[in-house]
């Protein structure tokens, strides 16, 4: 009998097509060539195997590829660093701007979700204002394609990147393979992010007036900022690009704990290449007690803004940040053991068999009729269940007309409850209905050992 072995070769998964198109565009930028709109169209058509007219790719794909190309080019370039002199940086960004097309044609999704990539020059200024240190953890809650993150990685930091768009998450994973990439709603980044992720710096350019849950809402950006601020480590620095209408005074008044505003700069027409002339606000906040008077300015001169950024106070030491609890030191003391005494064995309480009973109800083949509509709502009624002897809910319940027009499914499970909950009115009919449907869902979906059933 001959011995043999089987060798399995697993190929590395191919990168998304949009990433490969971005790599081709980045090569053009590295060679000093311009990327016109026609040039971008040709590269996209070649990589996707057809034109946008044939539905092979979209404007959204093209913009993601173009933005990622800039990120890859900037990441690899040795012509620009966060520490580059201001005049040299200005020449570099002017040259780059001249070789990029304006994103004048935008998809509905980009407009709806306000996906405007941070311009490289403004992103460089924001990261420079953050005064990043090697190996510190930087959080970007709405990372997009990585326009801000690229400067953090060039500074040698560790990255925690969050982005709600799957396409843009693919771009982040390709550009920053060592980064931790998540897909949470950034409005709740402090609530949803792993508690172990405690950044000492935050760079952010959030959506200004559109949230996942609330839709169009002018305070969306403020909620993003507050959640990111809550996650920032004590002593850390947060740099945010916010809308012009952002009320910084109101935000600071609502902050609990130490906060120091360092810079509040209205920046005009910074997003022209991204397809909008909106004025934005560059904020620099330290999570320490306020010190010097903040610098407030309005300008369209990014060179002037760079000098203001360089004049910002140095960041506080994280080790000097106050601890959450500081108890006074006490002299050591000695514990003296008391004589051991046997502990009494607690009496075992066994509930009587009659303490548990079935929640009986009648199922309605024909849904209960709707009550008269009041405004946009209907008085709530149980559409499929009648529970004998159950009390009405102590407060009026309503449901939308749309919800009320759809009858609930027929339940099957019979929950087991302590006796007297229904008879004594401790559980209303509406609350009991919720238990019935919960038990039905568990009986249907919960996997139990053979012979067991959900009760």
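^ structure tokens above, recovered residues below v
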């Amino acid at each position: 009998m001959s011995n043999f072995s089987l060798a399995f070769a697993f190929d590395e998964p191919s990168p998304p097509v949009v990433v490969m198109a971005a790599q081709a565009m980045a090569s053009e930028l590295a060679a000093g060539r311009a990327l016109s709109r026609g040039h971008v169209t040709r590269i996209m058509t070649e990589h996707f195997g057809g034109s946008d007219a044939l539905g092979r790719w979209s404007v959204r794909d093209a913009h993601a590829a173009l933005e990622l190309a800039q990120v890859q080019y900037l990441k690899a370039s040795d012509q620009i660093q966060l520490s580059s002199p201001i005049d040299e940086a200005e020449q570099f960004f002017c040259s780059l701007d001249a070789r990029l097309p304006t994103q004048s044609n935008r998809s509905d999704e980009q407009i709806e979700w306000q996906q405007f990539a941070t311009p490289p020059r403004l992103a460089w200024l924001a990261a420079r204002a953050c005064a990043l240190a090697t190996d510190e953890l930087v959080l970007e809650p709405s990372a997009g394609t990585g326009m801000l993150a690229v400067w953090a990685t060039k500074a040698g930091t560790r990255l925690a990147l969050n982005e709600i768009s799957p396409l843009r998450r693919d771009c982040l994973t390709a550009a920053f393979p060592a980064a931790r990439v998540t897909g949470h709603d950034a409005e709740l980044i402090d609530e949803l992010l792993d508690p172990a992720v405690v950044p000492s710096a935050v760079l952010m350019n959030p959506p200004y007036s559109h949230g996942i849950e609330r839709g169009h809402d002018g305070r969306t950006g403020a909620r993003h900022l507050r959640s990111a601020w809550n996650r920032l480590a004590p002593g850390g620095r947060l740099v945010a690009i916010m809308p012009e209408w952002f009320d910084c005074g109101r935000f600071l008044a609502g902050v609990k704990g130490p906060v120091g505003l360092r810079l509040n700069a209205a920046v005009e027409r910074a997003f022209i290449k991204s397809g909008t002339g909106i004025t934005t606000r560059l904020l620099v906040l330290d999570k320490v007690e306020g010190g010097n008077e903040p610098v407030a300015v309005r300008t369209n001169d990014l060179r002037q803004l760079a000098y203001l950024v360089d004049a910002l106070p140095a960041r506080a030491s994280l080790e000097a940040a106050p601890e959450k609890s500081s108890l006074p030191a006490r002299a050591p003391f000695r514990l003296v053991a008391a004589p051991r005494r046997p502990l009494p064995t607690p009496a075992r309480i066994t509930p009587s068999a009659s303490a548990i009973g079935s929640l009986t109800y009648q199922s309605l083949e024909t849904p209960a009729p709707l009550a008269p509509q009041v405004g946009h709502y209907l008085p709530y009624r149980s559409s499929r269940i009648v529970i004998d002897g159950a009390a009405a809910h102590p407060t009026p319940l309503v449901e939308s007309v749309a919800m009320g027009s759809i009858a609930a499914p027929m339940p099957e499970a019979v929950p087991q409850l302590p006796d007297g909950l229904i008879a004594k009115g401790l559980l209303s009919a509406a609350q009991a209905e919720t238990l019935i449907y919960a038990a039905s869902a568990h009986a249907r979906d919960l996997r139990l050992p053979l012979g067991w059933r959900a009760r």
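Residues 95 and 151 are 18 Å apart (CA to CA).
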